[in-house]
Amino acid sequence: MKNFRYQLSCAVIILACLLFSTTSQAAKGGKKISSDLFGLFFEDINYSADGGLYAEMVQNRSFEYNPTEQKTWNPFSYWEYVAPGFSYGRINVETAAPIHPNNPHYVLLDIEHIGHEAKYTGISGVGIKNSGFEGMVVKADDKYNFSMFARQLGNEPVSFTICLQTLKGKILAQTTVSVAASDWKKYTATLTPSANCDTANLVVLATNTGKVGLDMISLFPEKTFKNRENGMRADLAQMLADMKPRFIRFPGGCLAHGDGLGNMYRWKNTIGPLETRKEQRNIWGYNQTAGLGYYEYFRFCEDIGAKPLPVLPAAVSCQNSGGTWQVGGIGQKALPMNEMQEYIQEVLDLIEWANGPATSVWGAKRAAAGHPAPFNLQYVGIGNEDKITPEFEERFKMIFAAVKAKHPEITVVGTVGPAPDGEDFTKGWKLADDLKIPIVDEHYYTSPEWFISHQHRYDAYKRNATEVYLGEYASWGNKLRNAIAEAAYMTALERNGDVVRMASYAPLLAKKDFTQWKTDMIFFDNVKINPTPNYYVQKMFSANQGDYYFDKVIAKDEKDVNLAASCVRDSKTGDVILKMVNFGSAPKSMKINLGQFGTIIPQAEQTVLSGDANVENTFDNPQNVLPVASTVKIGKSFQYSAPAMSLTVVRIKTKK
């Protein structure tokens, strides 16, 4: 036993030496920077969740749409009453005895007569049809999981034919369901289309007389991302996974603190069985089902290896509530002080839900959803670009103190307003200094020229103090010149990675013809995805992160503000990663000296994004701007001619 312990001790010492050697090699001559620098910010804007990343195909599945979301909406929006075969009946929206108080509306279907005319050859019945989000895209031989909640309200069971059909009524897939329970019960079936269709409809058709309540009518592709139940649209999710982000911020954005106190995003309303979740009006002008809620968000982070960064309201609503952005943003409302202790407990409960053991009150709810192990939450954001009012400060201090006392292991991310300077920015930073907030969230949207001229913004920030999360930023536009300006700025973020902990472009997703924000990273419709040049820049940085920064590896004309460069090293792989940017209109030379990195592999991976400054990707031509990957030969020292309007990433392997 003693000999075994001795051998084990030796092995531990050797392993520690190897790890120390690797880290020391990475650190030699380098500056430690954040290993969480580049990530994603997801907000349900531009139909990013419902109708987008969230793979649900039925729109208004629980009949909760109403005119406060859009003036023409009501509980029957996107549903059509159908009675083929000369059948007839009635439908009404009811609220008596719903599935759950959070889901108060359902449809009462009263089937009076099923037609049996000899001349009619189709399926006779009474029911409803849903067109989805501008049509449902189905593929031949793929499986689609149908479900609905129903209860028998008459004397006899009711049989249903469930089918997918084309706009002209051709049946693509068909199955049957029988409702025979007087209490709410979930019914499921699988539909397998016989042909492809981009504009399919779902039909739920009762085929005998009776009365029945229907709710939560759903259709999901079986092939979601990683085949998750209640999961993500596979192709969109893969685009995000390919970026290898270190974190994902969720759920907002202005969505987090909401359009008035009643519209604040309350995380507890977004977990548990779908039929118990609380839908609400989206601050961006549509409905939010909460189907992509906190559980799905945390699970997606885990699936792609990103840390979760949930953002909770600081007990105040958005200062632009009620559209007051038009008159100066005076719409901020604050929770009454007699509700603050309950709200603070809500924040603490989130941490227990994410990290607590399965035996804890909220950890048990996570386990019941299918995840007994903790999610290992590290960051919690409190507030989103709030106006720094006395009401905000008082409530933020209470929340911050409570989290710090109960969970010192959690890193709190504060906020310093919606702009890169100004009154709220100054007040926010003073509060951060006074409270010693670990990280604060800066936001700015501005011109490409601003990003080029402000590359030294963070050079002068205090070290060993409050760090920065650049939570939302973008130059106004999706042309190549916008993306390359952002690339230049991102090299400065790497240079200042000891101050800037995290950064995420915003907004992330936008559905064609349903955008509330014109500049976005990825555009999509039901069939196609249109990545912008900005997406490729973000991916080239995010997928090539390092945790040590090295100065003076890349020599360039320092007087030329259009040139930018950075060199980082990934201590886990030993790879050296060069990023070189030319925002100018002509090629420019840069000289690289890799002498301090020991033995390098002479073949490197090179990726170049370049082209006409004003070109952009479109749905008709999504490949106007694409990065070009190649293998290049390098030496300890070499020259590189950076093309006009370009970002180049060179990844170099070394021998340890």
Write up this protein.
α5 crosses α7 (390-406) and α10 packs parallel to α11 (533-542). It contains eleven helices and 36 strands. The strands form eight sheets. It has an eight-stranded parallel beta sheet with strand order 2-14-17-18-19-20-21-22. Strands 1-26-28-29-35-32-33 form a seven-stranded antiparallel beta sheet, covered by helices on one side. The model is unreliable at 1-27 (pLDDT under 50). β24 (522-524) and β25 form a beta hairpin. The two termini are 35 Å apart. The radius of gyration is 28 Å and the shape is globular. The protein has 656 residues and is an alpha+beta fold.
Q: How much β-strand is present in the residues?
A: 25-35%
For the record, give the distance between the C-alpha atoms at the N and C termini, rounded to a whole number.
35 Å
Q: Outline the biggest β-sheet.
A: 8 strands, parallel
Shape: globular
Report the total helices: 11
Taking pLDDT < 50 over at least 5 consecutive residues as the criterion, the unreliable ranges are 1-27
Number of strands: 36
Helix percent reads 10-25%
Q: Order of strands side by side in the largest beta sheet?
A: 2-14-17-18-19-20-21-22
Helix/strand/pairing category: alpha+beta
Query: Quick check: average pLDDT?
Result: 94
Instruction: Write down the Rg.
Output: 28 Å
